Amino acid sequence: MRKLANIAHSRAGDKGNILILSLIPFEEEDFQYLVNEITAEKVKKHLGVQIKGEVVRYVLPEINALQFTCFDSLGTGVTTSLAQDAHGKSMSYALLEMKIK
Amino acid sequence: MAREKIRIGCGAGFSGDRFEPSRILLENGKLDYLVLECLAERTIALAQKRKKGDPSKGYDPLLERRIEDLLPLLITSNTKLISNMGAANPEAGARKIIEIAKKLQLDVKVAVVLGDDVLDKIQPDHRSMESGELLPSYGNIISANAYLGIESILPALESNAQIILTGRVADPSLFLAPMVHEFDWSPMDYNLLGKGTVLGHLLECAGQITGGYFADPISKPIPNMENLGHPFVELSRKGEGFISKVKGTGGQVTVRTAKEQLLYEVIDPQHYITPDVVADFSSVSFEELEKDQILVLGGSGKTKPEELKVSVGYEAGWLGEGEISYAGAHALERAKLAGEIIQKRIGHLYSEFRIDYIGLSAMHGEVLSSKSNPYEVRLRVAGKTKNKELANLIGEEVEALYTNGPAGGGGARKNTSEIIGVVSILMDRNKIKPEIKIFEI
Question: Which ipTM did the prediction report?
């Protein structure tokens, strides 16, 4: 079974209680596949209970990348979260665990 | 005479960043400007607390060491330093720099940027951008700092100071200001400001565009991480530039590292809002000119916002933590038993309480980790409370698991720390009056 990690890389960023994940294919020809398959709904479902708010997807064809902006997703926000990884820095690798065809 | 090209380096991307890369940038980067970005959202609230305790403090705790390290090189390389290490007290920071210069028998002129502290302009009817709640409902407010833009830094650049020390300024503005100053860009030319903001954003986290926060030995190997170089941009008056690093340093600048950093912490790539411009990152693309030299193309912008973001720091209580490890046969089962015991003993005492199994599910939760069975597991217990003694109790109870919990618990640690929360509000920019002050020997 393949994972997103086999075909793409990702970086996690934070702003308050918003988690931001990029998704960038290693090969340009996989970009369209990601656009077709990796929807905001799929990402919200995959990441599970931590994503309490809406997930908005941005498509960036100039750099062949996707971005997922996940609202209400860092506990109570970076500064007051009880989580060990309050910033969600490791969440890029949670996204890359998603199984793909 | 006006320059056709300038070089701006970024030697620190957060308060605790490494020292050596900034030295190397000054020694061999042929820079015109060095930027040290050292002020995270919460850092300024913590600095405000230090200033309250001692009015001669409140600037970045590493300012002294960084300036001692870099001042002689700044002078010999004829490079100007722009940094937000002033934090909550840029004037005290400037006095410290003058003291260091005297000790090193060097001449220096420091321009300080003031006006970001708007604590006295905060009203109880202000509501946070995050939840819409009234500010007083969060707790005791200890700081309020507006994100200033280039208009606050430009007078400091015109003063011809060697060092410009700011408090809260939008990170990309630290880079955009010298571009506008050197190339005489109009503050109304939003496309140019957008391009400059893209370059500033790419640089502001220093090592994050040269392989830091990127390297993965399997899928994204990066050479010589131990000597990771920090980046610089060389740009023309048209706002076109390339990102690179000093030859011989470790790391890599590639189209991939640039893509990851372009989108880092960007909520909406078409509307990246700073005090100077609403920049559009969606038109940006990258091209490799040669090894470790990435040309940045595109980028544009629209009219700057009428309101500035203000970070408000408040006292959010105490965090208590305790950890203990289990290994070998039934490690996970014993760790879970320990977690259940703690939950039953003290879980009900806290407004927020969580139990994590480090090595299993602490980072990504139960679902993604459900099938793994680690050899060793570390129990982590964390709780939030207004009461410091109650916060201490968490570590004490976890430590007591040695003799009152499952078999073979080892390596207990405890920690209590004060939580400073940060929320944001918007403030009419006309209410905020930046000014500069000069300090020299």
Answer: 0.96
